[in-house]
Amino acid sequence: MASILIQGWTVHKVGDEYYLPYIHWIYLKEILKYYDDICIVAPVEITKDNSNQFSKIGIFNNVNVYPVYHTECVTYISGAKNFFSFFKVYKSLRNFDVTYARYPDPFLWLQKVFFSKSKRIIHFVGRPIDTIFKNPNINIIKKVFIALFFLPEQLMHLWACKGAKIFTNGKDIHNHLGKLQIKSKPLISSVLTKNDFNYNPLKKISNIKPKLLYIGYLRRAKGVDTVIKSFALLQNKFPEAELTIVGDGETKQELCEIIKKNSIKNVHFLGHINDRSILNDIMRNHDIFCFASLSEGSPRVVIEAMANGLNVVSTPVGSLPHVFIDGKDIAYFDLNNHQMLYEKVISLINDSNNASLMRESAYQKIKEYTLENFYKKIFYDK
Questions:
Q1: Tens digit of pLDDT for each residue in 341-368?
Q2: Degrees (nearest 5) of the Cα angle 62, 11, 72?
Q3: pTM, to two decimals
Q4: Using CA atoms, how far apart are residues 125 and 136, in angstroms rounded to an integer?
Q5: For the chain, what is the domain count?
Q6: In this model, does residue 241 exceed pLDDT 60?
Q7: Residue 222 is part of which domain span?
């Protein structure tokens, strides 16, 4: 066994205890299979009430947290303002056998500065600049300004790739890095365990009360407004249709205003849910998962929906079009096109036999995409 330094997660603090969101906590649990000494370098978000949203780090005796700075809300900008805090923490650390950096996160390149002799792993999970340029709500001048502002940091990240083992969530990022002469290995991100798989061959989409679902952050880059606008069209044809939105974020009020302005009914906001079993139950009680994101690496939630036997209608982002075939495993629609999303949903409702074939095909395909296989490729496979 060996030691590893991890950067790329936000740690939450409630009282004197450190916590991680469930997803990162189970990642940590999986990493412990390969390392017996773990150090997490991270910003710390002060949280007044745990509310069962997070999982305690302290149950692991061999995991230490090195807080970079404390704040009430961790963002990329707040991290970028704290360069000297990152530098100070890295300078104080001893050597580690392995370092793991999860991009995008500020100042990941410090791992190369201080641990050039360690085995370094860089894991690209997204392309934030790409997301910004695909966002129709940001004008072109602001897009260019943001890109130029972050350019020095992006160049330092690319410099850090030299001598490191590079992984990407999906082939889009892999292909982008390839154009920059950076070799990488594309992966399909997953948190699936055996308890997350559930397929009911008798399930049919209701043609009276179809139930749509979105799970994820409520932010503009996720295109949740596109899902809601599409649902408004669907409700004209199916008045009893339902849309459930699981998650929270800065655009919730905007989304509520769209719903109110268009007199849309039967939209249920459930907020953030951390409990995996509850999320699985919610998925299994819906028919169609709608995903309208503008840019992704390898969207886990789509894989999770397929594992729970849902039909998926999605934008062709990240790894999805490289893995799932349109009309066979999944139904794709164009970015920011709520009309096309509506038409794809209607097609699934009207052709239940084809919808069932697509569900089964997707379910069979995702069986290999488990958490164990995902992290084994990063931390164990040679």
A1: 999 999 999 999 999 999 999 999 999 9
A2: 150
A3: 0.79
A4: 22
A5: 2
A6: yes
A7: 194-368
